[in-house]
Backbone:
């Protein structure tokens, strides 16, 4: 093997080993680093405006953004998390004490809706079995919620450390993001034209996906909590927050919450309240996605709905709550890479055609037109 080739192989091996080692060292804090990168991308335009107004004072501008994030994002998030925990604890207590027995609503089904009961019996479905399954499902959900609330309380110190680490990394990214981006951009193995299109497409898709998810989640959580409070449903903040989380999972989203709740209200005798909830859910909560997302995202590219569903569920299963955002972001990267590859193949085929048209015919030696 020539010395130059040997040095190249050795150098590439060292780079790969160093990169893998760095990833292993940072792996315990990957979630904090990921959120720092996401916030840096989202707040980068504001950072540029602040630097222009403050005559290039990067450190002051970055610190001001950190303060704004703490005041307007972290504090409200902690407050909402506390309200959610209280609501979850109240719901769990009602289930465990027997005050809330959702399965008993099915006992009135044969008398109130005999045709529905006959239809279920024709399908071979026993109401008693359905009642047992529903009751067991709510008990399991309550036990799951109790165990997770306990885990959250026990790991509060670790969570606060990750929040502090994310803010620290975010401050560093806001200060030195230009140099970090330029270094990564220059070392990216592609042509200048391809790099411009790839980084632009990925940035647009990732930002559009995150903005759309967050904005729709907040709006549907507020609308859902408001209608539950108006209808005097217990723990409206808790159920509203769940609707906000489910809103990022198409195609049904928040309907996983308000749909069964409306049906249960009707089966429990509250026909007017159930109809109001179902109508408001279908006409306002679900339709808010079609209003809010175009306003916030605009015409920026977004990930198709079916891919958002798969990657959101996959991200949630693999990475927890962080996967709700990480899954669609990975989908954005996947689509950006394949679109770049497809455009490169198309450009190469277009540039190759003139060369073939000017070439000579191998059989006659004459120039083809």
Residues:
């Amino acid at each position: 093997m020539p010395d130059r080739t040997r040095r190249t192989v050795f150098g590439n091996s060292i780079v790969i080993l160093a990169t893998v080692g760095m990833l292993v060292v940072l792996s315990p804090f990957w979630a904090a680093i990921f959120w720092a990168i996401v916030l840096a991308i989202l707040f980068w335009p504001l950072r540029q405006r602040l630097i222009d107004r403050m005559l290039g004072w990067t450190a002051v501008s970055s610190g001001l953004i950190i303060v704004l994030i703490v005041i307007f994002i972290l504090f409200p998030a902690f407050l909402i998390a506390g309200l959610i925990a209280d609501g979850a604890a109240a719901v769990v207590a009602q289930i465990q004490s027997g005050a809330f027995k959702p399965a008993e609503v099915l006992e009135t089904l044969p008398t109130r809706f005999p045709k529905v009961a006959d239809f279920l019996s024709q399908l071979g479905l026993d109401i008693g079995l359905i009642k047992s399954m529903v009751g067991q499902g709510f008990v399991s959900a309550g036990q799951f919620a109790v165990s997770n609330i306990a885990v959250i309380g026990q790991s509060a110190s670790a969570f606060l450390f990750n929040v502090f680490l994310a803010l620290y990394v975010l401050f560093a990214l806001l200060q030195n993001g230009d140099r970090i981006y330029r270094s990564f951009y220059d070392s990216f193995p592609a042509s200048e034209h391809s790099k411009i299109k790839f980084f632009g497409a990925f940035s647009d898709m990732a930002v559009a996906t995150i903005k759309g998810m967050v904005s729709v989640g907040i709006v549907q959580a507020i609308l859902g909590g408001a209608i539950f409070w108006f209808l005097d449903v217990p723990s409206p903040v808790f159920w509203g927050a769940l609707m906000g989380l489910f809103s990022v999972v198409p195609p049904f989203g928040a309907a996983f919450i308000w749909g069964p709740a409306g049906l249960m209200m009707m089966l429990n005798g509250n026909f007017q309240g159930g109809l109001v909830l179902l109508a408001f859910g279908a006409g306002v909560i679900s339709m808010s996605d079609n209003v809010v997302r175009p306003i916030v995202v605009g015409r920026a590219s977004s990930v198709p709905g079916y891919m958002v569903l798969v990657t959101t569920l996959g991200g949630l299963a693999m990475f927890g709550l962080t996967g709700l955002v990480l899954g669609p972001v990975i989908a954005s990267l996947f689509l950006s890479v394949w679109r770049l590859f497809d455009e490169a193949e198309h450009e190469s085929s277009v540039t190759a055609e003139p060369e073939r048209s000017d070439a000579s015919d191998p059989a006659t030696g004459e120039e083809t037109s």
Summary: The two ends are 47 Å apart (CA to CA). The chain has a mean pLDDT of 76.
